[in-house]
Each structure stands twice: as structure tokens, then as C-alpha cells.
Amino acid sequence: QHFSGQPPPDLREISRSLVNTYDCLPLWLQLIGRHMRRVGYDGQHTRVSETLKRLIANARLRLDLGSEAQALSSLRACIDLSVGALDAQTRQALHDIATLAPKPNSFSREAFLAITRCDVECLYDLVDVGLISGAQGRDRYALHASIRDYLTITDTSADRDERLHRLIEYYCGI
What we know:
This protein has 174 residues and is mostly helical. The protein has helices spanning 9-21, 26-39, 45-64, 68-84, 88-96, 109-116, 120-128, 145-154, 160-172, and strands at 107-108, 133-134, 140-142. Strands 1-3-2 form a 3-stranded antiparallel sheet.
């Protein structure tokens, strides 16, 4: 629906292949869908098709190796796409909230703002790319466990103690 006119005929087949390749795992598909929304914003069918073909080729290469670790690397590649599209401040905010418990737990907008010391646009950007999801309740959000695991593994900063301190400050009201 974001295209002007009709998408090229091969786009439907490419999309089906992508779903089959990723075994319909919801998180992968959400991240890929949001990435494709960014890629296809201007209605360039060729760019969309090429990006989908590249995602399929990369996933098949990893999945054909047959190990669970390789399949997980496909998920990591999808998360890498989304994280890589973030500006530095939003990427830092994402790492800041990795101190929070993942789904089914949730956090408030106020908690996000206090822990990350960012403006609300960072939160909205993270929701828009699918790295944080809305949760039940007014202004509640949740972090998927796979995203949190990814953030823990890829975190190279030395300010983890500072993040935990901000978390404690917020929840204890210090």
C-alpha cells in the first residue's frame, strides 16, 4: 500500500520466499517489515526487490549451514539492520533500557525518559523500527527478550553501572 501503482509481479513471490525462509518467526518478520518500510518509502520497486532478494540470500546461506547457532545469526542480522539505522542517541537509549526486564514485563514512558535521559522522540523511533513494542496499558512499552539478549551481547560500553544507577534512582524515587 506504500507503493504508487502496482508493485512488480516478482515482489509477491519474493515476499512469500522471505516468509518461508525465516519460518514465519514474528520478531524477524516485524523487523524485516519495518526495515522494508524504510527502504520502500519512496516507492522504488527495484530497491525493494533487491533488498528482499539480499535478505533471502543471506538468510538461506545461514540457515543452510544447518546449525541453530547459524539460524540465530539470521535473527541477529535482522536486529543489526534495525539498530544500524538508528542515530547515536537513539542507539544509546536502546542500550540504556537493556537494564529493564523483558516481556512480559513492561515499562512506562516516564521510566524510559528517566533512564535514558532522552526525549520522547527516541522512544517513538524505537517503537517505529520495532525494537520496542507497545504493551497493554496507557503509555506502556516492552522490550522483547531477544532484543535484550542482543543488547547484552553487543554492549561494549563501560557505563553499565551508570545505567543501573539511573534505573534504581527512578524506581526507588531517589
